[in-house]
Amino acid sequence: MAAPEESRPHRVVVLALDGLLPFELGIPHRIFTRARDEHGRALYEVVTCSVRPPGPVVTDADFTVHVPHGPEALATADTVIVPASYELGPLYDDGTLTPELAAALAHVRPGTRLASICTGVYVLAAAGYLDGRPATTHWSDADRFQRMFPAIRVDPDVLFIDDGDVLTSAGVAAGLDLCLHIVRRDHGAAVANEVARRTVVPPHRDGGQAQYIHRPVPAPQLATTTAARTWALARLHEPIQLRDLAAREAMSVRTFTRRFREEVGVSPGQWLTQQRVELARRLLESTDLPIDHVARDCGFGTAQSMRSHLQQNLGVTPTAYRRTFRAAVRT
After folding, report:
1. pTM, two decimal places
2. Contact 136, 121 (CB under 8 A)
3. Among 8, 54, 202, 251, which one is most buried in terms of CB atoms within 10 A?
């Protein structure tokens, strides 16, 4: 089949502020530039801009970065992403925009999607984009952020929050989760999973997953729950009881549940639902199986049960999800 006429990639503009964290600055470029359609064409274009004319921007490391675009680039954005900075000045001290930053944000067109990574959320909050809306940031800064912006509903526990046209994430690696989520939302699980594979990161951590796990790495002498998870992934189509998972690791249900939460950050039941939703997404995107067959193959049992879980996790019905992403595959 001949490739369709090329369309313009979605433009992501990353706003680089003084004191930026180089790792977080690079996340959008790393994720979005690897997203390709079935013909190998780039789905996104990523550019970086400053609040000043093109030139150097200091980082929190021992080097500066040269940013090739001034604030005018914000007027060309379909999505604007604000990574973290350690030098927010009055923005961090009293929640007000500097004249320079306010002038830069004035270039953002109405309807542009906005996203922040970690303390980049202060920019969106001070500009008024988050009033009356849910948001998150790094867990260690959440209490202070809530006190400074009481009109925002701050959730300190989650990896990221998708509130439609405004998205916010916790710190550092949660920026990867947020950007992969945007790719998944825009182009489906298959594209996002391929980006994750090329980036060598987990393809999906749900936004509701805890951002701070007290014991992310168990002591070496303790058994883990890896074998149980591997076993479950191979039989998502079957009923899986908690006692079955615990038996794979020769643990009591109570010990297994505690260890699982320590390692994964969610309960075994929540994790199973996440994996089944992801499998359903892949099957809805890549096959023409009837909805009830997809529900059965994913372990939801009935189409109604799957519909309920997809509505809760994705905000759409299976039919609507398939219509959106199967159409995207065929274009």
Report:
1. 0.77
2. yes
3. 251
